[in-house]
């Protein structure tokens, strides 16, 4: 759930930012867990029917799971920092399959939107004065 991090966004920008953020998180999660990226499912929704908020769901693709979700939950901060580093460090101009996934909207800067959303999300979850490692 993204709550306050997504306030004030246009719906179209939020949709692109959520997809880009989700793709980066999925890629980093696969590396952290040393699994095939297809072992992790991804759904991003501007308004999830479960909580009425913008949400990115990253889940185990294996029915019943094998413990990947628990391991990923324990490494949340590392996951978020890694996603920010992946996006910010990518040499592309405005998003590509290596960082935010395929560009479906050629006139939209998916990279900037995903980074903005990720930084807002990390800032909301950090106590005041504790700077997240996602500055780039």
Could you characterize what this model shows?
- With 136 residues, the protein is mainly alpha-helical.
- It has one domain.
- It contains 4 helices and 2 strands; from the N terminus they run αββααα.
- It has helices at 11-33, 68-74, 76-89, 110-125; strands at residues 40-45, 55-60.
- Strands 1-2 form a two-stranded antiparallel sheet.
- Helix 1 (11-33) packs across helix 3, helix 1 packs across helix 4 and helix 3 (76-89) packs antiparallel against helix 4 (110-125).
- Residues 127-136 have low confidence and may be disordered.
Secondary-structure element sequence? Answer: HEEHHH
Radius of gyration: 14 Å
Structural class: mainly alpha
Number of separate domains:
1
> What is the count of DSSP helices, taking H or I runs of 4+ residues?
4
Basic shape: globular
The portion of residues forming beta strands comes to 5-15%
First and last CA, distance: 24 Å
The average pLDDT score comes to: 83
Low-confidence stretches: 127-136
- State the helical fraction: 40-55%
The main sheet orders its strands as: 1-2
By DSSP, the count of extended strands is 2
Question: Sheet bearing the most strands, described?
Answer: 2 strands, antiparallel
């Amino acid at each position: 759930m993204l709550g306050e991090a997504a306030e004030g966004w246009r719906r179209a920008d939020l949709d692109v930012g959520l997809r880009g953020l989700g793709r980066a998180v999925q890629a980093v999660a696969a590396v952290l867990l040393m699994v095939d990226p297809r072992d992790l499912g991804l759904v991003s929704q501007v308004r999830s029917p479960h909580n009425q908020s913008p949400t990115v769901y990253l889940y185990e693709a294996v029915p019943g799971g094998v413990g990947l979700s628990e391991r990923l939950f324990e490494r949340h901060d590392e996951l978020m920092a890694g996603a920010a580093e992946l996006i910010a460090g990518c040499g592309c101009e405005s998003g590509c399959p290596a960082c935010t996934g395929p560009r479906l909207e050629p006139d939209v800067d998916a990279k900037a939107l995903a980074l903005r959303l990720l930084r807002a999300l990390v800032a909301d979850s950090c106590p005041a004065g504790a700077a997240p490692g996602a500055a780039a």
